[in-house]
User: What shape does this take?
Amino acid sequence: MRRILASSFVGSAIEYYDFMLYATAASLVFNKVFFANLGPGFALFASFATLAVGYVARPLGGIVFGHFGDRLGRKKMLVLSMLIMGVGTTFIGLLPTTAQIGIAAPVALVVLRLVQGVAVGGEWGGAALMAIEHAPMKHRGFAAAFANAGGPAGAVLGALALSLFAATSGEDFLVWGWRVPFLISAVLIAVGLVIRLKVSETPAFQKLEAAGEKKKVPLVDVLRNNPRAVLLGLTATTAFYVCQAMTTVWGVSVAVDNGADKNGVLNLKAGAALLTLVVCFYSARLSDRLGRKPVLIAGSLLGAALAYPILMLINNGTIWGFGLAIVLGNGLVQGLIYGPIAAYVAEQFPTRNRYTGASLAYQGASMLGAGFTPMIVAGLSLATGGGIWLIGVFWIAVMLAAVVAVRATAEGTRRELD
Assistant: This one.
């Protein structure tokens, strides 16, 4: 079990290092390297648009990897997703700039972001189910949190890597410094593959195989028999993705543009991700005792209550303001929701289509919540002349929608997975 949880955590951390490294670079680098000719405001919007492409591809990755994960097994898909992610991220680090090869540079950036999105779309479902389907019932939430915790851990690594090379490369950061963290991915992927190849297939899938049941097309099966579970799971999961995008992507860009020190912002982002890890494990353990629904509802209501205070702190242009905002939004609110969410979503589906159904709900939420939020918020800011009131309305609406969705689902904490 220790090896399985380590595999889920380390593998997810490496894949999310790659995926979230792009998000940080989209805030600080790509608008200046690939879209500099558009002007500051529209360059940032275009940079966030390429970020969204990866999130749009995540449901596709969830469907493709989910299909084969439900038919061939979880383990094979985890190994394949990691290989694809490593190739895409390394190529981003080698990509020439727009000044060097013209329009081909941003086009290639979009294609490689699509590759990243497909890979990470298949990653989460496999890593979460590998932990959940091996774990005893009373520890499922805590076990699933190891797969989810890989996200903040990868974000920490990505933010620290960019911060380190921003400091060491100085004025050359936009020339070569930003590239090194992307190239490091090749080494990390090799380490992750060694760990993943040593774990066994899940007992739940082995029982399904032994039963000899005629296998249906997982996507058709999910949409025919579990559409409500997909819709409600997607709505509930969107809440923490919006928190993540508001504080760690859009918030980083706004804080730096308003005068906060870039290295300080990146270091604070890494620190807040560590807090997210701690809160994630605590809330997952709490959900094993109290149930998934009470913890998720509490986190979503807290996010709605703190929306405007967090937005004001992000916009005040100081390190301490950004630090407090990201601790509250990323560390506390996101952490509370993030801990139980993997088990909550997976428990809504039967074994025969769990990889596909859980991935469709979770990755659909990532597309809507994390992929489009930076663009939506940047657009709302432009529409209001830099105001935050409309942004706050958007944030609160997402949190309250999550509360309604969670209340409408059945509690799965004591549900047998087989």
Summary: The domain at 2-408 is CATH 1.20.1250.20 (Growth Hormone; Chain: A;). Residues 310 and 325 are 5 Å apart (CA to CA).
